[in-house]
Amino acid sequence: MNEYQEVVDKLIRWYQKNARDLPWRRTRNPYYIWLSEIMLQQTRVEAVKPYFERFIKVCPTIEALAFTHEETLLKLWEGLGYYSRVKNLKKAAQTVVEEYDGSLPSDYQALRRLKGIGPYTAGAIASIAFSLPYAAVDGNVLRVMSRLTADARDISLDATKKAWEDEITLMMPKGEEGTFTQALMELGATVCLPNGMPKCQACPVREFCQAYRKNTIMQYPVKSPKKQRKMEYLSVFFLAEGKKIALCKREEKGLLSGLWQLPNCPKDLALPVILREWGIISGEIRQIKTQKHIFTHIEWHMNCYYVNVRENENKTFLWLDQETVEKQYALPSAFKKIWQEGCSFLEE
After folding, report:
1. CATH of domain 230-346
2. CATH class, range 2-137+156-189
3. CB–CB of 191/209 below 8 Å?
4. Nearest to 126 by CA among 62, 66, 172
5. Nearest to residue 333, comparing CAs of 231, 228, 250, 256?
6. Cα separation of 190 and 184, whole Å?
7. Are 262 and 325 contacting, i.e. CB atoms less than 8 angstroms apart?
8. pLDDT at 347
9. In this structure, are residues 340 and 304 in contact, taking their beta carbons and an 8 Å threshold?
10. Residue boundaries of the structural domains of the chain
11. How many CA atoms within 13 Å lie on the side-chain side of 243?
12. How would you label 21-53 residue by residue, b for 16+ Cβ within 10 Å and e otherwise?
């Protein structure tokens, strides 16, 4: 730890002067810290702030979250993506109400047993909310530590993450565990940047940075290349019967599991055949703009169609007006542009 002591001290002093004012940093409420960390996974801070504020108005406590209907939660989450996060939040909240009287446990292993809480989130809650010596190691932290020590281990490997968790835990200053956790996160998010050149001149610990000294900053962190995304080709339908629009639910497993969507099928299926299978006996089909949507591991290429339904025997879709859908139902971002274009035809 001695070799890092000055680094730790400088980082904490820098953070205390330069930390961004974020709503979840104004409190040590464990629930708010937990919620913010889940929302921030794969999502930019600026995008999260309004979602966080809206969410805690509807669900100000863990108990409120546990008893809020899933459709309401999905609507609050709409546009943040990775919807399994909010489903897991609700499941974990129910466990906390049942087993811990509505308060997050201050025990790291108990936190890890909650649905959707991995080592990083458990470390963040434990250190920031409860001042416990557990590291929260994400991509930002791995990048900072890799550059600081010119460490060439592959940061995508679990063994590398675990090694840094152990090392950073030893660095943690007693009584300031949470401040140190947030200082490392903040340095990675605002100074030691992932894409393009980091802002080394603004770094409070650059004099200790091995990569900076050796002018090898862009060589770190070392990370194995991502697998190529799988391509999927779909036909997506905006089915309108008068002012009513069709929605259907996805399967309860896999991508966007259990969410509402616009009806769709693999692109190579014949349109009249699939429409008849759905009970759409006749209607005018108009092609609208093709769309692409990129998920983490999958890329959708979508041929899109507006169908003015004339004869309808469908009993499986939900047929709703535009206002009801937009107020009450969460539609994944993949379908948003198609929805907007389809709704513009309704007004013609």
Report:
1. 3.90.79.10
2. mainly alpha
3. no
4. 172
5. 256
6. 10
7. no
8. 66
9. no
10. 2-137+156-189, 230-346
11. 6
12. ebebbeeebbbbbbbbbbbbbebeeeebeebbe
**CA–CA distance, 40 with 42 (Å, rounded to integer):** 6
Q: pLDDT tens digits for 129-179?
A: 999 999 999 999 999 999 999 999 999 999 999 999 999 999 999 999 999
Measuring CA to CA, which residue among 191, 272, 182, 281 is closest to residue 241?
A: 281
Which amino acid appears at position 45 of this protein? Answer: V
**Cα–chain-centroid distance for residue 314?**
35
Q: Is 299 a catalytic residue?
A: no
User: Would you state the structure tokens that stand for residue 227, as one six-digit string?
Assistant: 């697998």
Residue 1 has pLDDT above 50, yes or no: no
Q: Alpha carbon of 326 to those of 49, 125, 292, 330, 339: distances in Å?
A: 21, 34, 22, 8, 10
3-state secondary structure the chain: CHHHHHHHHHHHHHHHHHCCCCHHHHCCCHHHHHHHHHHHCCCCHHHHHHHHHHHHHHCCCHHHHHHCCHHHHHHHHCCCCCCHHHHHHHHHHHHHHHHHCCCCCCCHHHHHCCCCCCHHHHHHHHHHHHCCCCCCCCHHHHHHHHHHHCCCCECCCHHHHHHHHHHHHHHCCCCCHHHHHHHHHHHHHHCCCCCCCCCHHHCCCHHHCHHHHCCCHHHCCECCCCCCCEEEEEEEEEEEECCEEEEEECCCCCCCCCCEECCEEECCCCHHHHHHHCCEEEEEEEEEEEEEEECCCEEEEEEEEEEEEEEECCCCCEEEEHHHHHHHCCCCHHHHHHHHHHHHHHCC
Is pLDDT of 2 > 60? no
Structure tokens at 343: 């709704």
Map tokens 């507006």 to a residue: 306
Residue among 6, 37, 71, 241 flagged as catalytic: 37
